[in-house]
Design brief:
Number of strands: 7
Distance between the termini: 55 Å
Helix content: 25-40%
Shape: flat
Strand content: 5-15%
Oligomer: single chain
Radius of gyration: 25 Å
């Protein structure tokens, strides 16, 4: 990013809001890069506040800046902040560090991607459907939810293991919620979130065709509604 202003000097630092490496161009311009490990959902966007900190400690006004996370990274669909917020009372910075949470996020994301590939869904956000006026959720919202629940289930399990007085039932509920939502993804319930042309199979009445009588003469059905073809 290139920031224009006045009064910049060689000691000026761009903050996002944490100070990052800054290139001093002139008294009216400085440049900086968004860190490569900036946290955010793949293919999504995160708005941050940007300001310049002077060498004397003075700070400029804050301007909003939107960081677009490259879809090509395909590492995760949620963030550490969102996962930690799912576990009430969890305090970051203790025995369970952010790196551990990020590993769980990435691990669960791989499971989600495997389910998508098996389902035949594209991993490219450019192919996905956006949220519809009919209430159809955006694919990004679906993937974020599943990724968040799965990583939060692992976080809650770790909290229970480390602190015996933690709520084990809450951990199990998170795991159950993750399995339910992953099952819906694998079963096709969210297909329309990815492709508006996706068809939804409707269960109809029992069908019969041809001679459907048993040997004893009683009628029966050749096909049942739960049968998959």
């Amino acid at each position: 990013m290139t920031i224009a202003g006045t009064g910049f000097d060689a000691g000026s630092r761009v903050c996002l809001p944490v100070a990052v490496a800054t290139t001093f161009v002139s008294s009216v311009q400085v440049q900086a890069d968004v860190p490569a490990n900036f946290a955010g959902a793949d293919g999504g966007a995160v708005q941050i506040g940007v300001f310049v900190l002077g060498a004397d400690g003075s700070a400029s006004n804050v301007w909003p800046f939107t960081v677009t996370i490259p879809a090509s990274r395909l590492q995760a669909y949620t963030t550490i902040d969102a996962v930690c917020a799912e576990v009430p009372g969890f305090m970051r910075g203790g025995q369970i560090d952010d790196d551990s949470v990020q590993r769980w996020i990435s691990s669960v994301a791989q499971v989600v991607k495997g389910s998508m590939l098996k389902r035949g869904l594209s991993l490219d956000p450019a192919d996905w459907q956006q949220a519809g006026a009919d209430g159809t959720p955006a694919a990004t919202e679906v993937l974020e939810m599943i990724n968040r629940l799965g990583a939060a289930a692992r976080l809650a399990s770790a909290v229970v293991s480390l602190f015996g007085n933690a709520d084990a039932a809450f951990s199990r509920n998170l795991q159950s919620a993750f399995k339910d939502e992953l099952g819906r993804l694998e079963g096709g319930s969210y297909d329309k979130a990815f492709s508006p042309a996706a068809s939804t199979a409707e269960t109809g009445p029992l069908l019969s065709y041809g001679d459907t009588s048993r040997a004893d003469g009683e009628p029966t059905t050749m096909f049942r509604k739960e049968t998959k073809f």
